[in-house]
Amino acid sequence: MATAVVVSASVPADPEKEKSEMAVEKVISPDPCIKHPLQNRWALWFFKNDKSKTWQANLRLISKFDAVEDFWALYNHIQLSSNLMSGCDYSLFKDGIEPMWEDNRNRRGGRWLITLSKQQRKSDLDRFWLETLLCLVGEAFDDSSDDVCGAVINVRAKGDKIAIWTTDCENKDAITHIGRVYKERLGVPTKVIIGYQSHADTATKSSSSTKNKFVA
Ligand code: MGP
């Protein structure tokens, strides 16, 4: 353990006072080796659209982390979403949950969907995604954070999307709380409505016609 060392060349005028000052320094000296733990371990995934492969085969795990310092190390190491090619995704999910509808924790779930205009790629995409990541790793939704599975960003020529996925599309209280807090954290104006859709509906309908189960 690292402790502060006081070096004095002269004979102390008051040895008792000197001793107590040394004791204080020992107590407040921080240990530089301890990282700040997160409540959950998270996995970051990358999707690259290679049409010769299946959807699942295009999904790759990048890395896992469970400390604040490791989150920033990873975030600072990878490309900003706005620099990715169209067709790419990042997904951040709790360790043990795969970023797909088929996972047991997603099967009955759904997503709060933020759809962005083409202009918003420049003004909002990267800051919305960083804020989304911070909501997840910081467990921003109180008790409802347990319902969060992860988040996905889709970089698309037709308009980018960001979503928070939750585990149970019937869990109205948790979903509405998450939606309210999420909208506030992103700074989405009150008059702009965001929608929550079940994965079952998304998977069976074309995206333009998926109905909202909840709105915020
Ligand atoms: P997408 O990548 O979520 O959105 O889904 P995109 O590209 O904007 O397309 P749109 O349909 O929303 O306009 C594109 C396609 O990828 C889907 O139609 C599925 O074929 C496939 N896909 C997406 N997800 C999230 C999954 C998944 O979880 N499981 C499987 N099996 N396929 C998926």
How would you summarize this macromolecular structure in one to three sentences?
The chain is 29% helix and 24% strand.
Please explain how this structure is put together.
The protein is an alpha+beta fold and 216 residues long. It has helices spanning 15-28, 68-77, 120-137, 172-186, 199-204; strands at 37-47, 59-67, 89-94, 110-115, 148-154, 161-166, 195-198, 214-215. Strands 2-1-3-5-6-4-7-8 form an 8-stranded antiparallel sheet. A hairpin with a 6-residue loop joins β5 and β6. The N and C termini lie far apart (50 Å). Mean pLDDT is 90; it is low at 1-10. The chain binds 7-methyl-guanosine-5'-triphosphate.
- Mean pLDDT level: 90
Low-confidence stretches: 1-10
Strand content: 15-25%
Radius of gyration: 23 Å
- The H-and-E topology, N to C, reads as HEEHEEHEEHEHE
Widest sheet, order of strands: 2-1-3-5-6-4-7-8
Question: How do the strands and helices of this protein lay out in sequence?
Answer:
Layout: H1 15-28, E1 37-47, E2 59-67, H2 68-77, E3 89-94, E4 110-115, H3 120-137, E5 148-154, E6 161-166, H4 172-186, E7 195-198, H5 199-204, E8 214-215
Antiparallel strand pairs: 1-2, 1-3, 3-5, 4-6, 4-7, 5-6, 7-8
